[in-house]
Amino acid sequence: MDIVERFLKYVSFCTTSDENTNMTPSTPGQMEFARYLADELKQIGMTDVCLDKNGYIMATLEANGEGRMVNGECPVIGFIAHMDTSPDASGRHVKTSIVKAEERDFIDSCYAGQDVIVTDNTTLLGADDKAGIAEIVTAMEYLIEHPEIKHGKVRVGFTPDEEIGQGADHFDVKAFGCDWAYTMDGGAIGELEFENFNAASCKIRVHGLNVHPGYGYHKMLNSMRIAYQLAVMLPRWETPEHTQGYEGFYHLIGMNGTVEETTLSYIIRDHDRARFESRKRELEHLVRKVNREYGEGTAEIEIRDQYYNMREKIEPVMHIVDLAKEAMEAVGVTPKVMPIRGGTDGARLSFEGLPCPNIFAGGENFHSRYEYLPIPSLKAAEQVILQIIQMANS
Q1: What are residue 359's DSSP bridge partners?
Q2: For residue 105, what are the contacts with CB-CB under 8 A and spacing of at least 6?
Q3: For 121, which DSSP code?
Q4: What is the set of domains in the chain, with CATH numbers?
Q5: Active-site residues: which are they?
Q6: Which of 83, 223, 303, 308 is deepest in the core (most CB within 10 A)?
Q7: What is the pLDDT of residues 93-110, one digit of tens each?
Q8: How far, in Å, are 16, 30, 114, 125, 301 from residue 95 at the CA level?
């Protein structure tokens, strides 16, 4: 199947994840898509295709030659992508079209003249990360159809719920059985990443006291006003809209309240581990400050670490990054090594013993109704996968 046709089929599945269901996968559409993918992998000739009860898929491309020897052994390489799409925008009833880049003002001018897949701007597209899945499956199909290309054993894995930070929760690294892997989950063409944010989520609950407003003098405690007071104590320039590169931030992603109780939901991000820990302590300090002013127990805080910067786990095995760079250059793609201002399944998997840098999937404006996917970028990512596999054999 042509890679574009395959991708367009994939985005017809609604796989928006939902952190509030307490299920894995968090939404039924993901399992529906997983069943389709498992069947497809069998149809193209993959072996050991496994779909578990949590929606995780693993499959094998059997070796038909010997791979590059590393420390006296032939390594097994993996490729991973996630099936869910972000809750930040609807992924239901995605209506796509293929346009020239210059026909849409939100498409970067660097893609001028290229065919680009877009939506009708009422939903996201789903290139994050169905483009990654399409690239992996199409590359595997190509190798199966071209047995003259000799390669070692390759494993593929598709995960649910990456967008809500749970993609690696039930990923069995031992069963995957790889020496290293790559997540096909980056953005624009050429992106290659082996460092990411340290990440935590934070919930602050503020408790108030509601009385008749006409008689509230020295009695009423308005939790919304106190929560607002706490929120504005954070530096306004340390937010996503004012930071870039290696700069970290506090991001208020939700506020829900009444006079009686208000909840603030934050995500905390920083590439530097020491600054990351400092950011968590600062939020705890602000909660203590509120409690000193309004009484102990007025505010409560819960912080949960989500993932850490994979750099410390990748640096000892930088040859896997070098291999990806060489593969990109071999197919005419200029590598753009940069930090991820986010995270991938690969971050957590790296800390579980599976070093896992991140390679571009080709899309832009992820999590947005203006997400788009240049077709040459989609095809280039497939070529990078094929080149990595072939170069690992030489």
Answers
A1: 184, 192
A2: none
A3: S
A4: 3-196+309-391 (3.40.630.10), 207-307 (3.30.70.360)
A5: 84, 162
A6: 83
A7: 999 999 999 999 999 999
A8: 15, 19, 20, 8, 41
